[in-house]
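Researcher: Structure prediction, please.
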Amino acid sequence: MDNNRNFIIAIALSLSVLLGWQFLYMKPAADQARQQAIEAQQRAAAEQGTGPTAAGAAIAPPRASSVIPVPTTKKFASREESISDRSKRIAFDTSSLTGSINLKGGSIDDVVLKQYRQTVDPNSPPVTLLSPAGSPEPYYAYTGWSSDQADVAVPGPDTKWEQQGTGALAPGKPVTLTYDNGKGLVFKRAIALDEHYMFTITDTVENKTGKPVTLRPRAEVARLYEPTNLFGYAVLHEGLIGLFKEAGLKELTYSDAIKNFDPAADNNKGASKEIISDNGGWLGFTDQYWAAVLVPDQSKPLTARLFGTPQKDFFVEFSENPLTVAPGASETFTNKLFAGAKKVALIDQYMADNKIDRFDKLVDWGWFPFLTQPLYYLLNWLYEHVGNFGIAILLTTVLVKLLFFPLANKSYSAMNKLKMLQPEMKKIQERFKDDKPRQQQAMMTLYKKEKVNPAAGCLPILVQIPVFFALYKVLLVSIEMRHAPFYGWINDLSAPDPTNVFNLFGLIPWTPPHFLMLGALPIIMGLSMWLQMKLNPTPPDPIQQKIFAWMPVLFTFILAPFQAGLILYWTWNNILTFAQQALIMKRQDKTMNLLQQIGLKKSNGAAKHASHEVAPKPKTEPARGGKATEIKPAPVPAKAEPAATVAENETASTVAADQAVIDKPQPTEPATARPAQAPTGTVTAAPRGNLASKKSVKQRGKSNRNRRPGR
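Model: Predicted structure follows.
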């Protein structure tokens, strides 16, 4: 009972973890996003119907006071309307990005990723990353200056800049913006863009006032809304992020960022509770696949803040040490902005070329990057050679199986030996069903003699679990896996199987609830798991048998909402494991029938009987008169053998020792006298008709309980 109780507790805890993971963290973000989108549409409809927004003259609602400047602009009904006036913008168009720079404030607030679509449909709109203030989802980057002197006018988010010259921004063709404050300070802003996602912003101030001026360089990324399309998994960070040389990695969710806001800070202007003073680093916002990150000069000290306001305006901001600009002199402030997809190879290249401290942390590799990153590089290398990430996952599974083949082979061999010992184990259970300690002792003796480790079958699972979660993390964070198709109905390996058995795979116009998400690929996975478990030893306890019988069904429902690439890995791994186990079983038992082992074919009586016997019972030849015959005794229960006899026969043959363990008497059984046997375990038959023969027959009659009384 203790073993069953511990086993049930272990299974219950494991299921609690899986179910908790499923319903607390693995809930699809689409459901949450859908609800939030509906609420946002309702709020927008209410505002358009009752406020002056519909007339196009509304000013953005007041936000909580903050030292971070926010542009004042009218609220537009759509993003397209907010960027419609192209005369106030400088366009850019590369192979990776398209968008524009706003001359109002000189901010980068219009960035669209050309190479990525919102859905798997190739005709769907491209992914939008940054949007201007006044749009439904303002998200932009701004650089500039700040001053503690009230009489010094510095450019702000509402400043109207002018472009020097004409032409669009392009790789190798930067643009320059100018602003004269009319009080002796001339500001210039040069913006350059490479072929991918890195902007370089260089701000210069020239002092013509005739007196020194002290200014502080600063930059920010503002996200004036809380995203509704978050992935929603606790194993993936989405929100505010920063990495500094001494302070290390800082990650704040949107709710944590609001808690980090102190309205009484900075003379009641409102600011972050945590002020980070460090040297170099980077900071910004990160989503599952995209990021907008500021990269300061890595050699200069800075002060950084990451926070949000109760009105759900979120900011990451840094400033450098103040600069004193002498009369007739100029000072320059340079920083970079990464705004694009988190491609691993590109991020590694930026980290190396620009000496950005640990920029690869922008991709959330989790707690075990020593497993996740090598697995990613292996998958990506295979993909470059085969052209399909699904095939790359299958090949990776084969390589992992080959890597751990010796360990798994040893474990499966032990499991097969354990399966062959099940008839003996069942006899021990029946023999000592009322004496659990002696039952366990007899089991341990049997394991020891047969050199079988009952826990050996856990080793393949222990090896498989880290690889499973590492692959899960890779599919979760790497942009290369996004919208990667396989074959058939699997058009996105980073998303769950789109089919569902409960609506007949799309034939019924009904969307089942989340807990009924069960596609074709998870069903195949469940069948492969069931076949694999049929080859494993059947647990001796009936309760354990029922639990293991339902585990494939339970795991099928639990893993169904996971990414299709992960289900593909698990299914293929089950198939390879099944083949490996079947090969080992066939090698150890030439008469093994695979269809009978998995229950798809009924065995005949002889085969069924043989499967429950360790060795056939020897037949006793009849004694012939006048000649002594050596007869091997049949394995009958040793009713008169004391408990110490088993220990004394430890050095006997394997069959005799196992039989002694199985037939070990319980204390409640009365001991019956038994004639002594020869040390070799044989019986010598006397010639028919002599005295020894008559005594032997008489003794056998007395010891046989089922025999009718003699004459």
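Model: The mean pLDDT is 77.
Researcher: Thanks, that helps.
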